[in-house]
């Protein structure tokens, strides 16, 4: 295909575009004023349960669109052979992970763990469960039973995997999930800690929930990183989402 001369001159080549885009990403991630405006938008949109309005493959998914696209980028780059998720809710996140593995030409193997799995979630995920793409475990994600199940799920796996923590958002619970489950992952794996955004939300925003500033996934992640030199924040992704709920909560098992 031949382009007009003026078009060629106005469009950067691929190397230049990627370089410019990387700078935009860094600048956006460092813009605290813009992030504050994004948090204000999250607060206002939460009046309409914005994060609850979306679906993936017909299954309700409780995620912001920013983070759905971000997970796609992470999984396409990582090509995980196993995905473990704590917190199932209505099932959309498990459907997202399974379908993204298929898109990446990886056989879907997704494990979801939740303290209670409701009938509507089983129903929404039935086809994936029946074909073996998705497994579910009802129980506390920090329990010895969950650790045993995850060990079995990862048995003989040496390629990178993905762990997504999105259940109880209290500091103690998320820290125990990280402490118990993250070390089971092979080197090169990624951990997405959801709802680190709690640390940025207004004081007393979650009146009926046992988490708040200083007691949330962000504080748990910081403690875990201080104690575990095998993991580090993956700066390629941690500030990519403008309204993202996992800011500074994406880790890589570096050794």
Descriptive report:
With 255 residues, the protein is an alpha/beta fold. It has helices at residues 5-10, 14-30, 32-45, 65-78, 92-103, 119-131, 144-153, 171-181, 217-227; strands spanning 54-56, 59-61, 83-86, 110-114, 134-138, 162-165, 190-193, 231-233, 250-253. The strands form 2 sheets. It has a 7-stranded mixed β-sheet, sandwiched between helices. Strands 1-2 form a two-stranded antiparallel ribbon. α8 links the parallel β6 and β7 (190-193). It starts with a helix and ends with a strand.
Task: Please tag this protein with its features.
255 residues; Rossmann fold; two-stranded antiparallel ribbon; 9 helices; 42% helix; globular
Summarize the structure.
By secondary structure, the protein is an alpha/beta fold.
CATH superfamily annotation: Vaccinia Virus protein VP39
Low-confidence stretches: none
Distance between the ends = 47 Å
Number of strands: 9
Tell me the series of helices and strands, N- to C-terminal: HHHEEHEHEHEHEHEHEE
Tally of discrete structural domains: 1
CATH architecture: 3-Layer(aba) Sandwich
The portion of residues assigned to helices is 40-55%
Order of adjacent strands in the largest pleated sheet? 5-4-3-6-7-9-8
Taking the sheet with the most strands, its summary is: 7 strands, mixed
What is the CATH first-level class name?
A: Alpha Beta
The radius of gyration computed from the alpha-carbon positions, rounded to a whole number of angstroms, is 19 Å
What is the CATH topology? Answer: Rossmann fold
Q: Based on Cα principal axes, name the global outline.
A: globular
Mean pLDDT: 95
Sheet-strand content, in percent, reads: 5-15%
Q: Give me the secondary-structure category.
A: alpha/beta
> What is the overall number of helices?
9
């Amino acid at each position: 295909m031949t382009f007009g001369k003026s078009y060629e001159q106005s469009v950067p080549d691929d190397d230049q575009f990627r370089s410019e885009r990387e700078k935009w990403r860094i600048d956006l991630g460092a813009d605290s004023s813009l992030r504050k405006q994004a948090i204000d938008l999250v607060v206002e949109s939460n009046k309409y349960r914005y994060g609850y309005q979306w679906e993936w493959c017909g299954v309700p998914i409780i995620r912001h669109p920013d983070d759905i696209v971000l997970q796609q980028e992470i999984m396409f780059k990582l090509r995980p052979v196993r995905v473990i998720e704590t917190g199932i809710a209505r099932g959309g996140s498990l459907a997202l992970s399974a379908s993204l593995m298929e898109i990446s030409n990886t056989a879907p193997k997704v494990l979801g763990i939740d303290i209670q799995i409701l009938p509507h979630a089983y129903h929404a995920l039935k086809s994936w469960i029946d074909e073996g793409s998705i497994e579910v475990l009802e129980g506390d994600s920090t329990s010895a039973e969950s650790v045993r199940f995850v060990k079995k799920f990862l048995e003989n796996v040496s390629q990178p995997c993905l762990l997504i923590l999105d259940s109880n958002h209290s500091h103690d619970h998320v820290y125990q999930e990280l402490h118990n489950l993250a070390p089971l992952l092979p080197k090169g794996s990624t951990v997405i800690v959801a709802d680190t955004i709690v640390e940025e939300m207004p004081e007393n925003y979650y009146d009926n929930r046992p988490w708040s500033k200083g007691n949330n996934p962000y504080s748990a992640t910081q403690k875990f990183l201080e104690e575990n030199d095998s993991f580090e924040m993956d700066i390629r992704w941690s500030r990519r989402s403008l309204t993202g709920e996992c800011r500074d909560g994406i880790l890589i098992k570096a050794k």
